[in-house]
Design a protein that fits this description.
The protein is mainly alpha-helical. About 50% of the residues lie in helices and about 0% in strands. The longest helix is centred in the first third of the chain and has 15 residues. Bound molecules: heme C (HEC) (2 copies). The site of one heme C (HEC) has 21 residues, from helix 8, helix 9 and helix 10.
Length: about 200
């Protein structure tokens, strides 16, 4: 009994900060124009998937767009990001994370297998990416690390170029050098491996 009370006390702050998925769904309507009705995104470089991706990461990115640490004025204006409350942002992220595209329609969650040398990509991923983005490529929500395995490779390719061109900060560290020495071929290889981790490409 004592234990139960302790558990209740420990979880109380979480309960009082309850996530409202219905509110998240309502607020997310303004995102559908670019990210798709279910947050599925499109295979191009400019419509990343949000469905099923770590909520902690999404919250961090939405705040980065609002604070102009990531630059995307069209998105900030179209969805009036400045008028969202902190609760709204938490709700939107939790709503998108909760979406299982395969349940909505089989195939909707598919990620194209990127051409390239998967084995070479595995070597690099295992050495240099796995510690943060995890072995299964699903990221870590609480640490704000994205799920590469659920994301469209053309979008990821573009983001890696942005890291190389110093137009976006990787790993919250302006001094980060992860991508400095990679050739385009090596990036293609990493993406070939990462996209092979998507559930539909797993053999
Ligand atoms: C006008 C089109 C547009 C609208 C509307 C829009 N977005 Fe975006 N969003 C984009 C584009 C384009 C990117 C990727 C661009 C970039 O930063 O490189 C993006 C990126 C993101 C990312 C980062 C994804 C990642 O993997 O890093 C998040 C999170 C996001 N949007 C959330 C939202 C939410 C939540 C809404 C609605 C409240 C929204 N967006 C509305 C166009 C839009
Ligand atoms: C020390 C931890 C760490 C390591 C190692 C790491 N990353 Fe990341 N990565 C992050 C974090 C944190 C972010 C989110 C950055 C942000 O908030 O904008 C990120 C973001 C990304 C993104 C952007 C995804 C998106 O949805 O926009 C890509 C692509 C990426 N990493 C690829 C890689 C690859 C490939 C490697 C290995 C070569 C790697 N990362 C190694 C921590 C790491």
């Amino acid at each position: 009994m004592k234990r139960l009370i302790l558990i209740l006390l420990l979880t109380l702050p979480l309960i009082s900060n309850a996530i409202d998925l219905e509110n998240g769904k309502k607020q997310a309507r303004s995102c559908a124009l670019c990210h798709g009705v279910y947050g599925q995104g499109t295979p191009g470089p400019a419509s990343p998937r949000l469905a099923g991706t770590p909520a902690g990461y999404m919250v961090k990115e939405i705040e980065a767009y609002i604070n102009e640490e990531r630059i995307n004025p069209r998105m900030v204006i179209t969805s009036s990001l400045h008028s969202l409350s902190e609760e709204d942002i938490d709700d939107i992220a939790a709503y998108y994370e909760s979406i299982n595209l395969e349940k909505i329609r089989p195939g909707l969650g598919d990620i194209p297998q990127w051409p390239g040398n998967k084995e070479a990509g595995y070597e690099i991923y295992n050495e240099e990416c796995k510690s943060c983005h995890r072995k299964n490529g699903m990221g870590k929500s609480r640490k704000g690390i994205p799920a590469l395995a659920l994301q469209y490779p053309r979008y990821l390719y573009r983001q890696i170029k942005m890291f190389q061109w110093d137009k976006r900060v990787h790993d919250d560290d302006p001094e980060d050098e992860t991508f400095d020495d990679f050739t385009d071929r090596q990036i293609e290889d990493i993406l070939a491996y990462v996209s092979s981790l998507a559930p539909n490409n797993k053999k």
